[in-house]
Amino acid sequence: MARKGRKCAALLSCYREDFLAGPAYTVISTTHDEVVTPYQSQFLAGSAQQVTNITIQDKCPVDVIEHDQTPIDPVVQRLVSNALGRPPGLPADPAFQPSCI
Q: Who is most buried in 35, 37, 80, 95, counting CB within 10 A?
């Protein structure tokens, strides 16, 4: 539930800690995001069995992409592929290391 008195930049941020049982959540963010700031505000709170938060630069420091470049970035594509290839109900493997550019 939304917390009273809290302004929400996006609907999802209002419900950061209220997840449905079953689905897995994977967040992939960039430290160079100019749309969602601070970039850490994209991260979700939750158990490691349900939520994986990934910062691209933690995996590949020289990949300095911005928000709008994420769909075409090869590193992001590898991270998404890893997340989608996991068994149902599991988020991306936080230990997965994509090959960097």
A: 80
Taking alpha carbons only, the member of 44, 32, 97 closest to residue 70 is 32
Q: What's the distance, CA 34 to chain centroid? A: 16
Between the alpha carbon of residue 11 and those of residues 2, 6, 42, 64, 92, the distances in Å are: 9, 12, 12, 27, 23
What pLDDT does residue 51 have? 93
Could you state, in order of their start, the residue ranges of all structural domains in the chain?
22-84
pLDDT tens, position by position, 28-81: 999 999 999 999 999 998 889 999 999 999 999 999 999 999 999 999 999 999
Beta-carbon contacts of 54 under 8 Å, excluding residues fewer than 6 positions away, are 26, 27, 28, 29, 79, 92, 94
CA angle centred on 86, ends 68 and 76, rounded to 5°: 20
